[in-house]
Amino acid sequence: MDLQAYLASQRALVDAALGRLLPPVDARPGRLHEAMRYSVLAPGKRLRPLLMIAAAEAVGGRADEVLTAACGLECIHAFSLIHDDLPCMDDDDYRRGRLTSHKVFGDAMALLCGDALLALAFELVCRAAEHVPYERVVAALQLVAQATGTFGMVGGQVVDMESEGREVNEETLAFIHSRKTGALITASVVSGALLANGSGEAESPWAATPRATRRPTRGSWAWTPRAVGPSGRSRRPRRRWRALGPRPIRFAPWPPTS
């Protein structure tokens, strides 16, 4: 397989889907929809949706089964960039080679644009239920929510802000990167495989929710994917188990209790 050709074709697929799924500028409130399209459709790698699609295909799924949910991940990424660029955060004037959202639409509209994209993202992930059993969609939603919120991207951003102008140690730096960037990337892979693997058997360490485990040598919380069988108990990645069917999925506890 030509990797570059594959990435280019899947990127074009995602871009076309985003163009269809984002609200049109001729629908009220048009200015908000214009801001949403301005940021999301800006040139980019589309890494997170591409990872979700690739993970789905790796376990026997199809791109069209997870395409809408994958677009939701790109909306979350765009929301994070818009808010990250605001004057109260990093105060950046340019993003992806052009003016940032608040420079074009104003601070208030940029803030609301990010809010709207986050809400739209979860709507798009929910729409995976058109192709996937509901319990798998719920599991994917939990993954994405955890990766986005206080134990993921937002939490990483907070520690990044608190560390500005300070000398940080390796543990803090690893915490920032694993949450601010790594959490949503991990969730993209895990949720893509989870959504697509609706029948048969799975052999993958990504076939369940990521859960935090304590590194005894570092004493920090690490975002670590662990295999979970139908009973909810951890299992070795190399072992095989019957894929989760119509039974409700038992979620790994979050945040950890010990």
Provide mean pLDDT, rounded: 81
Low-confidence stretches: 198-258
For the termini, the CA-CA separation is 45 Å
Give the tally of β-strands.
6
CATH superfamily of the largest domain, called what?
Farnesyl Diphosphate Synthase
Brief characterization of the structure:
This protein has 258 residues and is mostly helical.
Question: How would you sum up this structure, described in words?
Answer:
The protein has 258 residues and is mainly α. It has 2 domains: 1-131, Farnesyl Diphosphate Synthase (Orthogonal Bundle); 134-258, no CATH class. 55% of the residues lie in helices and 7% in strands. It contains 9 helices and 6 strands, in the order ααααββαααααββββ. The strands form 3 sheets. The chain has a two-stranded antiparallel sheet. Strands 3-6 form a two-stranded antiparallel ribbon. A hairpin with a 6-residue loop joins strand 4 (210-214) and strand 5 (221-225). Helix 4 (63-85) packs antiparallel against helix 6 and helix 7 (134-148) packs antiparallel against helix 9 (170-196). The longest helix has 27 residues, at 170-196. Residues 198-258 have low confidence and may be disordered.
